[in-house]
Amino acid sequence: MFFVIEQWHNVALRPAQLGRRYHQYVETLLRQQVEGKCLHNLGYIICVIRIVHMEAGRVQDGTGMVIVAARYQAITFKPFKDEVLDAVITDVNKLGLFAQCGPLKVFVSRASLPPSFVYQDDSAVGCMTDGEVELRVDSDIRLRLLGVRYDSMNLFAIATINESYLGPIHHSNLGTQSNAALFGGLGAASSDYVSPQSPSLHSPHSPAL
């Protein structure tokens, strides 16, 4: 899913940018040009970690621009077919539902949902339900990718939740309960506890001082 890659990229500098801040300009332009872009063989570039190597700039004929070849290290997001991911539903309609997993946009068609789920548009926001569980906007689901398509700026995929261990994710609210709620019964029980009477410091049979 997430990878650290090294890649070459050419950065074009104007003559006015050749000075003491030369390296800073190269790094800034490199980040602006590659971060948030999607490459078919590398995936979606999340961020540039650092510049590993920078070659000497060469003047481009006819423009006067200085072309600098820089090798950078970056973190990328590259989903694969049959990969299982957690996503958040962003839209639900009669044809299926759309979900978002970071930069990846996923569509789950009606045929890829369990047969028990039907579309309901009674409320202001439509949802899929089987009578017990609802799939609506902002719900968390676990899905399996059936195919991935790359664009210059975005990632698109189709997925299914009609398999075992896929579908809505139910979060336990145990972590949100306060300690008082969790241990209130224990506190009540301890308050009703009566300790045995402690023995007197002076025994009735001990001689008087």
Automatic annotation (TrEMBL):
Record localization: Nucleus
GO BP annotations listed: positive regulation of nuclear-transcribed mRNA poly(A) tail shortening; positive regulation of translational initiation; transcription initiation at RNA polymerase II promoter
Molecular functions per Gene Ontology: single-stranded DNA binding; single-stranded RNA binding; translation initiation factor binding
Keyword set includes Transcription: yes
Keywords for the protein's UniProt record, in alphabetical order: DNA-directed RNA polymerase, Nucleus, Transcription
Gene Ontology cellular component terms for the protein in this record: P-body; RNA polymerase II, core complex
One Pfam family cited in the UniProt record for this chain: SHS2_Rpb7-N
Domain RNA polymerase Rpb7-like N-terminal: 8-64
InterPro entries: NA-bd_OB-fold, RNA_pol_Rpb7-like_N_sf, Rpb7-like, Rpb7-like_N, S1_domain
Main location: nucleus
Gene3D superfamilies in alphabetical order: Nucleic acid-binding proteins, RNA polymerase Rpb7-like, N-terminal domain
Domain S1 motif: 78-151
Similarity annotation: Belongs to the eukaryotic RPB7/RPC8 RNA polymerase subunit family.
Protein name (Swiss-Prot/TrEMBL): DNA-directed RNA polymerase II RPB7
